[in-house]
């Protein structure tokens, strides 16, 4: 008979997880309602005492102002440091320097430096690309101000890279340019993160490689995104979510169970921290933070910035 572990895993994770930093990624909301709800989300998530919030940008750089506005709001709401996702795409070198000055003046100290993606008609539309790859952007930001710079890493290889080893060498170039840590593309199989960490170490990378955990609030949507982003989707996840679309509560509890298992396995594979792609929700990422020994519960009695 196949046996499940008899270990009290939750108790152990509550103890070991408490030593690891967590961070939460959000995207700029598309409506006023979504904006108010993000303020509430951030106030709740701040309860887990995250190292930072990060605010995404569109791959072509066109959401820069919205990203910055959201970052300012979250910083004002929560007193948690905010990390800006910033792309080389959509900017000239002069614009990058000027924008770096502005971020620095605004008190932003954390940047995720990305190449971004050029739209197919970028040349025709005259969309600039300050640096061909993210390493150039890292060097430019570091030369301008003493930012804490993160970069993206791909445990299952970036879709454009010829091989995983070539991709890891490109990651190394980003560290050589001054990056402080990498935040990994989400994976659904923690083992691929573990293997990636070992392989990166063999390439001489000694900086933190923080795994990303995506909250599958809407499995079909997340699945579509994963396929596009080059993350493999195990059959067992399709099986777990099969048929729960019409059962929202069961879908959420199932999502929680998958996140919980993923966090536990990533910690077992040596994760130095956990970065949650929250999809602008708070229940599952906050519960996951709680299960990492965060003793969440300070929210009651707190005013949130949207509740003026
Ligand atoms: N918005 C977000 O939160 C996130 C977005 N992304 C997206 O992923 C895309 C890629 O961005 P990055 O990973 O920053 O790009 P990158 O420049 O680090 O890598 C992109 C591709 O170019 C290759 N490459 C990198 N440096 C190279 C070099 N010096 N010489 C030759 N080849 C090199 C890599 O192997 C990879 O295939 C962007 O579209 C970004 O928007 C990825 C993670 C998070
Ligand atoms: N290549 C890549 N680009 C990214 O922007 C990105 C990553 N990877 N990895 C980590 C996070 C995860 N991000 C995500 C994840 C899912 C959706 C998503 O569900 N998109 C929907 C549309 C959402 C909407 O516009 O409301 C989709 O169907 O693609 C978006 C950004 C942003 N980040």
TrEMBL record:
Q: So which domain of life are we looking at?
A: Bacteria
Names of the cofactor(s) = FAD
Q: Which GO terms describe its biological process?
A: methionine biosynthetic process; tetrahydrofolate interconversion
Q: Which UniProt keywords apply?
A: FAD, Flavoprotein, Oxidoreductase
Q: Could you tell me what reaction this enzyme catalyses?
A: (6S)-5-methyl-5,6,7,8-tetrahydrofolate + NAD(+) = (6R)-5,10-methylene-5,6,7,8-tetrahydrofolate + NADH + H(+)
Q: What InterPro entries does its record include?
A: FAD-linked_oxidoreductase-like, Mehydrof_redctse-like
One Gene Ontology MF term = methylenetetrahydrofolate reductase (NADH) activity
Q: What pathway is this protein said to act in by its record?
A: One-carbon metabolism; tetrahydrofolate interconversion; Amino-acid biosynthesis; L-methionine biosynthesis via de novo pathway
Mind naming one GO cellular-component term on file for this protein? cytosol
Pfam families xref list: MTHFR
The entry assigns this protein to a family as follows:
Belongs to the methylenetetrahydrofolate reductase family.
What is the protein named? Methylenetetrahydrofolate reductase
């Amino acid at each position: 008979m196949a046996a499940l572990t008899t270990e009290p895993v939750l108790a152990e994770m509550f103890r070991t997880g408490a030593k690891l930093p967590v961070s939460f990624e959000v995207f700029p909301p598309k409506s006023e309602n979504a904006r108010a709800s993000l303020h509430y989300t951030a106030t709740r998530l701040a309860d887990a005492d995250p190292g930072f919030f990060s605010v995404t940008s569109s791959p072509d750089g066109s959401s820069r102002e919205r990203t910055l506005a959201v970052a300012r709001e979250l910083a004002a709401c929560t007193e948690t440091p905010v990390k800006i996702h910033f792309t080389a795409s959509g900017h000239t070198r002069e614009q990058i320097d000027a924008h770096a000055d502005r971020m620095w003046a605004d008190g932003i100290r954390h940047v995720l430096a990305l190449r971004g993606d050029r739209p197919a008609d970028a040349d025709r539309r005259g969309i600039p690309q300050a640096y061909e790859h993210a390493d150039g952007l890292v060097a430019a930001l570091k030369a301008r101000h003493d930012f804490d710079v993160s970069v993206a890493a791909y445990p299952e290889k970036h879709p454009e890279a010829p091989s995983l080893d070539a991709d890891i060498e490109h990651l190394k170039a980003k560290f050589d340019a001054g990056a402080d840590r990498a935040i990994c593309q989400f994976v659904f199989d923690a083992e691929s993160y573990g293997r990636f960490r070992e392989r990166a170490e063999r390439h001489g990378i000694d900086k933190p490689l923080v795994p990303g955990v995506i909250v599958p609030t809407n499995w079909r949507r997340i699945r579509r995104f994963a396929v596009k982003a080059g993350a493999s989707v195990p059959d067992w996840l399709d099986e777990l979510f099969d048929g729960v679309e019409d059962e929202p509560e069961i879908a959420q509890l199932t999502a929680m169970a998958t996140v919980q298992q993923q966090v536990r396995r990533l910690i077992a594979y040596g994760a130095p921290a956990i970065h949650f792609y929250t999809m602008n929700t708070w229940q599952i990422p906050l519960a996951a933070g709680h299960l990492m020994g965060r003793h969440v519960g300070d929210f009651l009695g707190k005013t949130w910035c949207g509740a003026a």
